[in-house]
């Protein structure tokens, strides 16, 4: 069964159609990716799913519940967490505090519920601290608990953001370019972490990513956007060999030089 069903969403900014009639179905406990050249509409798509923007048309359902019209915090409560393309940590707070501030939504039954039920907490702060501890351990940052976020190595800061998202006990997590700026070793670590998020926590993962090696080895399904439109989707090898996808990437490479959008052959 699909956990997320997006049907025909469109979002325009003035004259620009950033997302054009996009349909996407994400099976429960899948790891899927959205790829496409710069400006293809990927982040806008995440912003639509998370309630930052409202689409002009279309429907977005999480477990059959319509999300359009919900505020971003209500979308989090409904079960969707995300990370951002650029690191958005509070640099003057510790790793632990960064997770505690993210966790203001109600605790639902989920992987944390099982851990927390075995203990009695005297305050919600104590409980939030325990959640932070569990999530830091899960992403392998237990030793950085009391360290300022800004002092963590770059790859660990990105993991901290993931831990913060997971602390809201989502059903679905959206990761916007999680490997951006990572070295190959950090990227390998990240890949293992994303698999564990799905395998051990049962959380469905949708990622936007430019690192094609990561995308091709991690994703069970890939959707390709170009100029806001879905131009291809399928298994990694199907997408990799799709001439429309190659053309989109090569065309956009050319667009960075002399060619404008109009000069570029359309997929
Ligand atoms: N708030 C906004 N107002 C106006 N235009 C916007 C807004 N947000 C996005 N756009 C435009 O929509 C298009 C899609 O942008 P978006 O950031 O979704 O692309 P992307 O695929 O995530 O790109 P990248 O890979 O570079 O992050 C771009 O042309 C962008 O300039």
Automatic annotation (TrEMBL):
<dbReference type="GO" id="GO:0005524">
    <property type="term" value="F:ATP binding"/>
</dbReference>
<dbReference type="InterPro" id="IPR051120">
    <property type="entry name" value="ABC_AA/LPS_Transport"/>
</dbReference>
<protein>
    <submittedName>
        <fullName>ABC transporter ATP-binding protein</fullName>
    </submittedName>
</protein>
<dbReference type="InterPro" id="IPR032823">
    <property type="entry name" value="BCA_ABC_TP_C"/>
</dbReference>
<dbReference type="Pfam" id="PF12399">
    <property type="entry name" value="BCA_ABC_TP_C"/>
</dbReference>
<dbReference type="InterPro" id="IPR027417">
    <property type="entry name" value="P-loop_NTPase"/>
</dbReference>
<keyword id="KW-0813">Transport</keyword>
<dbReference type="InterPro" id="IPR003439">
    <property type="entry name" value="ABC_transporter-like_ATP-bd"/>
</dbReference>
<keyword id="KW-0067">ATP-binding</keyword>
<keyword id="KW-0547">Nucleotide-binding</keyword>
<feature type="domain" description="ABC transporter">
    <location>
        <begin position="4"/>
        <end position="252"/>
    </location>
</feature>
<dbReference type="Pfam" id="PF00005">
    <property type="entry name" value="ABC_tran"/>
</dbReference>
<dbReference type="InterPro" id="IPR003593">
    <property type="entry name" value="AAA+_ATPase"/>
</dbReference>
């Amino acid at each position: 069964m699909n956990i997320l069903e997006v049907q025909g969403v469109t979002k325009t900014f003035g004259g620009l159609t950033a997302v054009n009639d996009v349909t996407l179905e994400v099976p429960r406990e899948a790891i899927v990716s959205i790829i496409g050249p710069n400006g293809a509409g990927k982040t806008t798509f995440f912003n639509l799913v998370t309630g930052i923007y409202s689409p002009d048309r279309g429907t977005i359902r999480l477990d059959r519940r319509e999300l359009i019209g919900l505020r971003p915090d209500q979308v989090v409560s409904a079960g969707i967490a995300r990370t951002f393309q650029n690191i958005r940590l509070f640099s003057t707070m510790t790793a632990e505090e960064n997770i505690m501030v993210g966790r203001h939504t109600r605790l639902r039954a989920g992987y944390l519920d099982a851990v927390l039920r075995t203990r009695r907490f005297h305050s919600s702060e104590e409980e939030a601290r325990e959640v932070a501890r569990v999530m830091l351990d899960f992403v392998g940052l237990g030793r950085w608990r009391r360290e300022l976020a800004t002092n963590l190595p770059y790859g660990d800061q990105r993991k901290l953001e993931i831990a913060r998202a997971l602390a809201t006990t989502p059903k679905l997590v959206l990761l916007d370019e999680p490997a951006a700026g990572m070295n190959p070793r950090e990227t390998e670590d990240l890949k293992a972490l994303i698999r564990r998020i799905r395998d051990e926590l049962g959380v469905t993962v949708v990622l936007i990513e430019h690192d094609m090696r990561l995308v091709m080895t991690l994703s069970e399904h890939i959707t390709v956007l170009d100029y806001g439109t879905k131009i291809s989707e399928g298994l990694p090898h199907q997408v990799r060999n799709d001439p429309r996808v190659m053309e989109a990437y090569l065309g956009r490479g050319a667009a960075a030089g002399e060619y404008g959008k109009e000069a570029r052959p359309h997929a």
